[in-house]
Design goal:
By secondary structure, the chain is mostly helical. It contains four helices and no strands. Helix 1 packs antiparallel against helix 2 and helix 1 runs antiparallel to helix 3. The protein is rod-shaped, with a radius of gyration of 22 Å. The two termini are about 40 Å apart. The relative contact order is 0.14.
Amino acid sequence: MAAADIQDSLLVVMHDLHRLEGLLNHATDNLIARFDEANALLEPLAAGDSCQLVAAREVLRSAVTELQFHDLASQLISHTTRVLQACAFRLANETMGQDEDEVSAPLAAIAPQRPNPVTQSEMDAGSVELF
């Protein structure tokens, strides 16, 4: 009975991670739209090369760099979801067995190959790590 409860908990966590990823995607889409709007509002000022315009555009460029956080977070959520799914399937296979007509999930295809897909732990302007 404990194994079934653990499996159910793993599936709930996977569902929550999926919802979190959706929230991050929505927030990021909104941020990108706002950056585009701000850039469009600055366009009429481009004729005059003011220090304020240059500073505002630099701030927007720096803010876009922060959007890399979304990519890193999404990779980590996806990785964690695959780990949890593999654990849930393995737990089910080892404790509950398998019905004769049931096809088992290929654990190797589900489980991530690398222990951590995200190697960057902080975001600073100009510090872009390619992986």
